[in-house]
Amino acid sequence: MRRAVVLLSGGLDSTTALAVARAQGFAVHALSVDYGQRHRVELERADRVAKALGAVEHRTVRLDLRAIGGSALTAAIDVPKGRSAVEMAHGIPVTYVPARNTLLLGLALGYAETVGAFDLFIGANVLDYSGYPDCRPEFLAAFERLADLATKAGVEGAGRFRVHAPLLKMTKADIIREGTRLGVDYSQTLSCHDPDAEGRACGACDSCLLRKKGFEEAGVADPTVYR
């Protein structure tokens, strides 16, 4: 089986991306990153998801981005709540973590070299998302080119790296429908940016609102536990 590294946060999108990779026949090596995020309870969910969906291996790497700060997810900045769809569609919110996907894909790339994989999966999405620049197809295409230039495997011609973003142009409803078809148990996932200590979602941050909207539009019961 071909091997793939899947970035797994424990959220709805990354979990669906893992399910897609498995459905495409990849032996999945899941990679989660403990970057000091306030919602680090998601890492527990990632471990559950990796086991449930048959990952060959699941590793968690520590990279404390609190040392850099600059985001509501890694610093003492309030997470926005109750924003309208119009507000979410304009500008880059304070939940953006500086260069996060660049750093995470870099780790995934290094992991891929060690396990002999040339396929990286990420749950990036450009439709129902909060304006993050590192979720755009231009960024993913640029990283793919970088991967071939910056690695021993790429330079020696062992293979070409490919960044898969199977959810890129899907709505949240489409993602949920696809994940449901593939047998994903979304009750195991957590999307909230500001959950409580028990892992219950706030129900009001951008991520929670987009998730709620997705389940409603997909006609699928939302299994999320809200506080």
List the helices and strands and how they pair.
Blueprint: E1 3-7, H1 12-23, E2 27-34, H2 42-52, E3 57-62, H3 85-88, H4 100-115, E4 119-121, H5 137-150, H6 152-155, E5 162-164, H7 172-181, H8 206-218
Parallel strand pairs: 1-2, 1-4, 2-3, 4-5
Give the number of helices: 8
**CATH top level?**
Alpha Beta
Give the total of domains.
1
Percent of residues in helices: 25-40%
Which word captures the global form?
Answer: globular
What is the CATH superfamily label?
HUPs
CATH-derived architecture: 3-Layer(aba) Sandwich
Radius of gyration: 17 Å
- Return residue spans where pLDDT drops below 50 for at least 5 consecutive residues: none
Largest sheet: 5 strands, parallel
What is the number of E strands? 5
The topology string of helices and strands comes to EHEHEHHEHHEHH
Strand content: 5-15%
Quote the distance from N terminus to C terminus: 42 Å
Description:
This protein is of the alpha/beta class and 227 residues long. It has a single domain, classed as HUPs (Rossmann fold). Helices cover 37% and strands 11% of the residues. The protein contains eight helices and five strands. It has helices spanning 12-23, 42-52, 85-88, 100-115, 137-150, 152-155, 172-181, 206-218; strands spanning 3-7, 27-34, 57-62, 119-121, 162-164. α1 packs across α7 (172-181) and α7 packs across α8. The mean pLDDT is 94.
